[in-house]
Amino acid sequence: MNLNIPAILSSIGFSDVVDVLIISFLIYKLLGYLRNSRAAQLSKGLAFIVAAFFITDICHFYATKWIISQILNVGLIALVVVFQPELRRALEYMGRGKLLGGRQLKVSQERASEMVGDIVRAVDYFSQKKEGALIIIERNTALSDIAETGTIVDSRLSEQLIENIFYKGSPLHDGAAIIRGDRLYAAGCVLPLTENTNLSKDLGTRHRAGIGISEVSDAIVLIVSEETGIISMAQDGKLSRFLDLRTVEKVLLSHYLKQKEGESNSLELITKLWRKEGESNGTKEDN
User: Fold this and answer.
1) Range of 279's domain?
2) 189 and 146 in contact (C-beta within 8 Å)?
3) For residue 162, is pLDDT > 90?
4) What is the DSSP letter of 133?
5) Are residues 278 and 144 both part of a single domain?
6) pLDDT tens digits, 163-191
7) Which of 41, 65, 95 lies at the terminal end of a domain, its last residue?
8) Which of 88, 140, 207, 254 is most buried, with most CB under 10 Å away?
9) Same-domain status, 132 and 241
10) By the 8 A CB rule, do 221 and 248 touch?
């Protein structure tokens, strides 16, 4: 069979190239998503069944091929059931993507710096006192349904307010607090627990709840352990532990300042804020 390469290439139009690029991008994102989820092992099993189907066809194993074909026919419905959590997360991920626009509430640069300072100082207080805390910073994904499980506070965010919310004698200290924009929107909220079975057994309900809400939203979740005072952060279903205050401050500043100036200028703005903070601290010390 002779292939006329020049003729094939000349028949390829711009729409064909775009079509191939779209399919390639979708396959790339799908593989990346499967690799970072529990669906990876299930996908390997599915690939094995498909490969076995073609092998039985080539080798003329008709009985085995018939059984596998029946499994594949029913498998389309079974896949929806088995992959239900992953499909839900994938759709939520697409829904909060930048292509569809965001709903982040804008915060001024000065207010962002003030808020981050309040949050960091409160986290430091909880860590020193070994008081548990679960703070959710809402981003594009609205968490109104989660807020309804607790008490709507909707007050201006401050260090004292956060500390009072998670004070052991407070009726709201066992739940999570949601920060929306520059306000503490709700407290005492109940979060969905992660279904990830690969987590360390040392992690309690507070950490599993923090990971759970980060799996179904794009929120930044700060967690302080009541037993050890260890500071952790959950994003996109991943938990980072043993964080220092500088790291927490950097992540929060990056988040808030991206809303104001754009992602490309966030590091420059962070540097300016740190320099400004250092100058003010130096002035106070001289006095």
Assistant:
1) 109-286
2) yes
3) yes
4) E
5) yes
6) 999 998 899 999 999 999 999 999 999 99
7) 95
8) 207
9) yes
10) no
